[in-house]
Amino acid sequence: MRHIWIIFRRELGQYFSSPIAYFVAFAVLLLTGFTFNDDLAMRNGRAPVDPALPLIYLAQFSVFFVPLLTMRLLAEENREGTLELLMTLPLQDYQIVLGKFFGAWAYYTVLISLTIVHQALMLWLNPADLGIAFSAYLGLWLFGGASIAVGMFFSALNENQIVAAFLGMAALLILWQADLVGNVLNNRPLAEFIRSLSFQSNYSYSFAIGIVRFDHTVFFLGVMGTLLLATTQVVQSRRWR
Amino acid sequence: MASEQKSQRTIILDRLSVARWSSTLGAVALVIALVALLASGELSPVVVVSALIGMSGLGLWMTLAPEDFRSTLTGRRAVYGSNSVLIILLFVGIVLIVYAMAARSGIAADFTSRGYYTLKANIRPVIEQLSRPIQITAFYSRRLLTNQALESPILRLFSDAAPNKVRLVYADPDVQPILARQFGLDSAYGIFVSYLSADGTPDLNFTVRVLTARDRMPNLPLEEDHVNERWIAEAILQLEARGKYRVLFSVGNGEVNLDSDATGIRDGLRNVGIQVATIDLSREGVPQGTTALVILAPVRDFTQEMADRIAAYLGSGGKVLIMAEPAYRSDIRFMQAEDSPLAKYLWQAWGIRPNRDIVFDPLSYNETQYYVRAAQYLEGHPIVQKDQTGSAARPLFPIAQSWQIATEPPADVVVRRIYTTSPEAFGKLDLREVARNPDRAIREAADLPGPLTLVAAAENLRTQARLLLVGDADWVTNDLIVAFDGQILWTNMIDWLTAFLERVTIEPAFGQLPLSVPSRDLELTAFITVGVLPTAVLLVGLWVWWRRSRR
Amino acid sequence: MITVESLTKRYGRFMALRGISFQAESGEILGFLGPNGAGKTTTMRILTGYMPPTSGRASVAGYDVFTDSLEVRKRVGYLPETVPLYPDMTVHGYVKYVAELRGVPHAASRADDVLRIVGMHTRRDSLIRNISKGMRQRVGLAQALVHDPQVLILDEPTIGLDPRQTLEVRDLVRSLGRTHTIMFSTHILSEAEQVCDRVAIIHRGELVAIDKPETLRDQLQKGARLFVRVGKAESAETVRKTLQNVTGVASVTVLNDGFSVEARRGVDVRPRLASVIISAGWELLELRPLAMSLEDIFLELTVREGADERL
To answer: Who contacts B267 (Cβ-Cβ below 8 Å, separation ≥6)?
Structure first.
């Protein structure tokens, strides 16, 4: 636990001391801001505001920016040789993986909590259901954790950060769009199964509409657990490969 | 060693490399076979061929290089690698089991402040006290998987409230076309509520289709069609009402003919499961078990005996709907005489009587000046409610008379004016004058001043009796009911009388007001979210970079 | 302290280690000498638990590196060939981070102590990205020392350092060697000679020799070339012929200012050369071994073993 905490602290500090992380946050906020204001203008005089809306956008953008945050986690250590240090320290491999994961997740948490500004503005414009906002945040947080676990897995598989980011984006895009599998796949039970694995169906149609379902919570936690386990196995495989 | 080096340089295929290549090829082919099997769900030629290639590839490996095969299976990498894979698979298995249990349990926390995903307190007893087990059959085609996901939490409210009484079944109209046809479904989406028969299949004779958003807004795209908790509950109540509700129509006195002129309302009642029958009040009284009595504009007036029978029925808590036409034809005598027994009873017992006029409303001329469109309505009353947004039905009454309501109603009676004319309207009492100048109606001193009551609803709080009076009956005929919210008004009236849907009153789901702010506010929002916030993050980043670069 | 038994490592078709065995005693400084690609780094990575051997066994402080990896890692300080540094951390922050992960009590002050030992204390608050290569090497060394390990494994710790820094590091290793077991790789012969108690020479994945540096050198230089300068001689050719006839001399080459004498293997011809020259009435101005480059030694050793060229 202490080891996880030490690695977590360094990883989080790393995010806040590297200009790239600020630039990613800047780009994400800018994109979210554009779509958010566009949507507000469209709704004005027609429909009430939806507190989950900036968060759904953020979830969509996560597909592209989370791999940028996770690509360096293990690929960089591998390339720079620092993984050799970590792996020859008296640490369990899962402690390395978990410490890094929680560091990235904490950064993500800070990033999404910046959108509280958007929520406050919405509250000022057109008071909406705060319960939905709360469950949408909870869902987005779990969603981000699962996305980070996916991105981190590819970072462990690959020494090249760009390739890791690209593979992570591709995987997350598929997991996001798997929602539409019913339009292309003829085998309905399989389509429903694949669909239930899609990040979108477990977020946009549950957390984002104000209902926190036990199975969808289990889904995100399960994805996190599975991929963290797989990542640990990949890291550990160096010891016996 | 030497041979190995040689093969590496000249790429001569030796036994080992052939064996390894065939093992790789075989593994890839087996994966393709598995994927193809899952995707198509059958043993297609692709599946068979790639499975054969895969097995022969692995077989070749085994025969050409048995040593390599054995050491690959028993080496440290094989042991640890398969260990890793097994641990991951085991974990995935546990996650899947927990997920399935979680999905089955249906545990969910509803965070909406309106409790959109919680069964309403007034619907729960309806579900828990169902007379027979029901099945909710929900049809979604493949393309509507998202809709299914969005709606399943609402559908589950019902099956979770009483798992042994409500069964939830999803079906695909494309996969099960016969089933869809049995339910009479001809689109990609539809939800039905049925009683379960003894053999556990849905009883198609006791099936009600849940009205969806497209039934109310036909222009809605299929992808946006949806149901809500209230509409499903209404369908369940309709099912429960099958055979329990009995509405009698009075006949034998020149009423609107239910079997030729007003088949629409008759069939509409039957479609939602209400029994429809006729009664000749001159021969018999209203029998027990009658939910409501409807009197559709008779021509001949009712005798004292008939009036007494209506009075007896109302006295026992009955519900009566009376529509009365003005005497624009000389043969229309229903309640037109001063000493009409029914009119006298109504005045004494309920404080309402016909004005025996013809209503003109200059503000609501529509085609002819005899057509009166209700100008004012009693806001919030269930009879006027058009849809969930709370807007009101605005019916049109072609040639109507108005009702006089006593300033001091009898004890226990509450009378409400449901629809009234505008204040500019007037009621012509001199019907001969109207007949002489049918194209010209001018307000005169002798006329009744507006606003005039077109529809009145009375309720006896002691006996629970309900009486509904409408100054026109033409609007329920087949030609006119489809226009000017006639169907909605008719349904609402029957619902109010029979208390058919009164058990289901749900706050409208779309209660939040639309965003409506000056563009100045939006500009400020944009300035903060697109300008200030990202810039602040960027500045902090630059500051950190600047500070660190100096160390 | 360190025991290695017929260790092999195969990367695909390339054999990096072909079964090497050796031991290092407690408190010994073992030099690991060999050219690039000889298998030094691979051996060290196996000993620190970073990668597994293909076959064979290795143990550190009595713990098997494969089955008891964690126990081994607790007792080993390791400086890999590419110094594992985080450029965005400060020098002190980095050493403290490793100390904390190592579970060293009072990590911050201990980090300061080791930085003082390696002479990096003045730059403790600099970002690692802003310090020179030699400094980075020393920070890496500080990291390896921070938990005062029983065994120190240093992969080319002096590479890229300027001469003064090199000397400092050598002194440091020597002083640490009194209390620690140190295994230390280099491709510079003189460095191994100066620092190590024993030297293991590996070449192409095989252990060619392991012994005390003096023994090794003597052994090698018995069969080595000598430089001879003679005064008062008639002609170079006469001297060449005379020297050629000395027992044990294989060949003599005339150089600009003297002669290069190649002795037969295992024979020390120096006393006989001296007496022949003196007795011929010439002046012996200089008699010294011609400096052997590392390549010469490997050539020597591999030829002696009669091994053919592999791969």
So the answer is: none
Express each pLDDT in C269-278 by its tens digit. 888 888 888 8
Given a cut of 90, is residue C163 above it in pLDDT? no
Per-domain boundaries in chain B: 2-74, 124-240, 244-355+401-419+452-498, 518-551
Average pLDDT over residues C112-133: 88
- What average pLDDT does the segment B129-142 reach? 88
How far apart CA A35 and CA A118 sit, in angstroms, is 12
Mean pLDDT of chain B: 81
Count Cα neighbours of C56 within 13 Å in the Cβ-side half-sphere.
Answer: 22
CB contact under 8 A, B8 and C90: no
- Considering only CB atoms, which chain A residues are within 8 Å of C55? none
- Pick from A36, A43, A206: CB nearest B529: A36
List CB contacts (< 8 A) between C125 and chain B: 551
Locate the chain A residue with the closest alpha carbon to C85: A82
3-state secondary structure B33-55: HHHHHHHHCCCCHHHHHHHHHHH
CATH 3.30.70.100 fits C225-291, yes or no: yes
Predicted confidence band at B538 (pLDDT cuts at 50, 70, 90)? very high
Cβ count near C275 (within 10 Å): 12
Give how far the C-alpha of residue B379 lies from the chain's centroid of Cα atoms, to the nearest Å. Answer: 22
Q: What confidence tier does B216 reach under pLDDT thresholds 50, 70, 90?
A: confident
Ranges B140-154, B302-316, B441-455: which has the least confidence: B441-455
Task: Give residue A4's pLDDT.
Answer: 94
Q: Please check whether the domain covering C2-213 is classified as CATH 2.40.50.140.
A: no
ipTM of the complex: 0.89
CA distance B51 to chain C (A): 29
Q: Which residues contact B201 (CB under 8 A, 6 or more apart)?
A: none
Which chain B residues are Cβ-neighbours of C206 within 8 angstroms? Answer: none
Q: What is the mean pLDDT of chain A?
A: 89
Task: Select from C52, C97, C143 the Cβ nearest to the Cβ of A239.
Answer: C52
Q: pTM to 2 decimals?
A: 0.73
* Model confidence at B365: pLDDT above 70: no
Residue A231 near residue A97 (C-beta atoms within 8 A): yes
In chain C, residues with a C-beta closer than 8 Å to the C-beta of B8 are: 13
Q: Are B153 and B226 in contact (CB under 8 A)?
A: no
- The CATH class, in words, for B244-355+401-419+452-498 is alpha beta
Which residue, B151, B116, B155, is CA-closest to B233? B155
Verify whether the Cβ–Cβ distance B551 to C130 is below 8 Å: yes
Which chains sit next to A, with 3 or more Cβ pairs under 8 A?
B, C
Nearest residue to C96 (alpha-carbon basis) of C85, C88, C108: C108
Q: Comparing C-alpha atoms, which of B499, B497, B505, B507 is closest to residue B241?
A: B499
pLDDT at A29: 92
- Domain ranges in chain C are 2-213, 225-291
Q: Are the Cβ atoms of B4 and C88 closer than 8 angstroms?
A: no
The distance in angstroms from the start CA to the end CA of chain B is 55
If you average pLDDT over residues B408-430, what whole number do you get? 82
B294-303, B436-445, C34-43, C245-254, range with the lowest pLDDT: B436-445
- What pLDDT, on the 0 to 100 scale, is given for residue C202? 86
Nearest residue of B to residue C126 by CA position? B551
Closest CA to C183 of C69, C51, C76, C58: C76
- DSSP for A217-241 reads HHHHHHHHHHHHHHHHHHHHHTTT-
Q: What is the mean pLDDT of residues A52-57?
A: 87
Task: Look up tokens 């017929």; give the residue.
Answer: C6
**In CATH, which of 3.90.440.10, 3.30.43.10, 3.40.30.10, 3.20.20.140 is domain B124-240?**
3.40.30.10
Q: Cβ of B76 and C126 within 8 Å? A: no
